[in-house]
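# nightly structure sweep
# worker-07 picked up a monomer target from the shared queue
# config: single-sequence mode, recycle default, output format = structure tokens
# input follows
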Amino acid sequence: MEAKKSKADKIILSATNKNKMLWKLVNKEIGNSQQRPNIIINTGDKIITNPQMISEKFNSYFTEVIKDLLSQANAHNPQQYLRLQVNDCPATMFVAPVTESEVIRAI
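# output follows
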């Protein structure tokens, strides 16, 4: 057991990404496989397995969804997307991080 721990220590210490190597060793020890099946999508007319093509299909889909939503919103009120209604809440306070020297200067 000690030899196994020593070997794992050496592997982790020599790794460029120690966190990744640690999790790789943990998963190997507990039997978790890092291999995941590739995503397969059906576009209706063909099945796509190429990861690059899949990402392009997702990009196209979400781009079109946004265009459709914007066109629907604009059909009802063309200036709707330009207006931003913010309701004031007097009981709310917003603060930003400050340094010690900024606090001393303010006092």
